[in-house]
Design brief:
Layout lengths: L2 H8 L2 E4 L2 E6 L2 E5 L6 E3 L2 H9 L6 E2 L12 H4 L16 H6 L4 E5 L7 H7 L2 E4 L6 H14 L3 H19 L9 E6 L4 E4 L4 H8 L14 E3 L2 H7 L3 E6 L6 H5 L3 H4 L2 H5 L2 E5 H5 L4 H13 L16
Parallel strand pairs: 4-5, 4-6, 6-7, 8-11, 11-12
Antiparallel strand pairs: 1-2, 2-3, 8-9, 9-10
């Protein structure tokens, strides 16, 4: 098991006869007992809670403020959960009315309003949006401890590790490094080996060509910058209802010079499911698609995942 994950888990919680103490991005959170009424302000928290058999009393599932709403795989599962606004614009009034005994917040997205959240209810902040696979796994354990489902969380992680070991068998040894990026109509944002999807694919046996840029695990790159990187494998995360910037780039001769394009190794996945869920349920879907797409095998992508 990854040493960093073990280190993160070691910092997570201490149980005692008087309750539990969980360390998070803003210090330590002490609860007298497991939380029963949880508000989740990030999709990964909703995913994790549902995987643990806990339904949050409210969640930031709204699509206002530029947010696309819950990822497709999570929509049906979370349809009956009361919305507390969007991740970028959660409603303090709605949260107050739900009487939570725990709020799960993203250290990056809700960092500025953390003091206000903490006044409403005990609040734990985690690095979800900017976290790695190890960070997200440590969160699964922490959330399990906070809601009294630690054993279930440990089982989830054990099952996940076993599934990823099986998937890793499909990975072609010495396959060339990949560049992974979220593509929107206006941007091309690469995900380094310290991002969630970037570290996830590395855990499955493929090598990420990029590390962080300073403290940024994700950062924008131009077409010229991509050509300079010249990856032999390109993994794109796009929304089915958008026209990504790469459609325009394909009209440029520079695009055709990319080794990944010439090799026919451009894979396209749904960015909503792959980069916004980031929990145990999303990971099962991602493992299945990583195999089905033939990305792990370094083979030409299957039709459903082929770049147009």
């Amino acid at each position: 098991m990854n040493p960093r994950f073990l280190f993160l888990c070691g910092l997570t919680a201490l149980s005692s006869a008087f309750g539990l103490s969980v360390k998070h991005e803003r210090g330590s959170l002490e609860l007298k007992g497991p939380a029963k009424r949880v508000v989740a302000l990030e999709y990964s928290f909703v995913d994790t809670l549902l995987a643990l058999g806990v339904t949050p009393v409210g969640a930031a599932l709204g699509s206002q403020g530029g947010d696309r709403g819950a990822p497709p795989y999570l929509r049906a599962l979370s349809a009956k959960i009361p919305a507390t606004g969007s991740r970028a614009q959660p409603s303090l009034e709605i949260m107050l009315s739900l009487r939570p005994d725990l709020i799960l917040a993203d250290a990056f997205v809700q960092g500025e309003i953390y003091p206000q959240l903490a006044k409403l209810a005990p609040t734990a902040a985690f690095q979800s949006r900017r976290g790695s696979l190890d960070d997200l796994n440590a969160q699964t354990l922490a959330i399990g401890q906070l809601v009294g489902r630690e054993a279930a969380a440990r089982q989830l992680l054990a099952d996940q590790q076993a599934l990823m070991r099986k998937a890793k068998v499909f990975s072609k040894k010495a396959a060339p490094a990949f560049v992974a990026a979220v593509v929107t109509p206006k941007s091309f944002t690469v995900h380094s080996n310290q991002s969630f999807v970037g570290s996830f694919l590395e855990a499955l046996g493929r090598k990420n060509a990029l590390g962080p840029k300073g403290d940024q695990t994700q950062y924008e790159v131009s077409l010229e910058g991509l050509v300079a990187l010249n990856p032999q494998t390109l993994v794109l995360f796009a929304a089915p209802d958008e026209t990504p910037i790469t459609q325009e780039w394909k009209k440029n001769p520079l695009w055709q010079k990319l080794s990944a394009v010439q090799r026919g190794r451009v894979y396209v996945f749904d960015r909503d499911d792959w980069t916004r869920g980031r929990g145990p349920l999303a990971l099962k879907l991602m493992v299945a698609q990583a195999i089905e797409s033939r990305l792990l095998q370094d083979a030409a992508p299957s039709a459903a995942f082929r770049g147009q």
